[in-house]
Design brief:
mainly beta; five-stranded antiparallel β-sheet; 12% helix; binds zinc ion
């Protein structure tokens, strides 16, 4: 199981507990919460799912499922 499958199946947003979406953004792995319009970094394949790590999504990130 890769991190994308693991993330989308098991990981939830620490704020709202909705499912997260895995994406590569600017060459980095991130996990997006559409509900909070925030994302969490993944560092060395470890998702940083702390509320303090949440980064607000701006218009530069496409949070739709289509790439
Ligand atoms: Zn959330």
């Amino acid at each position: 199981m890769n991190i994308e499958e693991m993330a989308e199946e098991f990981l939830v947003c620490p704020k709202c507990h909705n499912n997260l979406i895995y994406k590569i953004f600017k060459g980095k792995e991130i996990l997006i919460c559409k509900t909070c319009r925030a994302y969490y970094p993944v560092e060395d394949e470890i998702p940083m799912l702390l509320i303090d790590d949440a980064i607000n999504i701006d218009d530069s990130i496409n949070i739709d499922d289509s790439d």
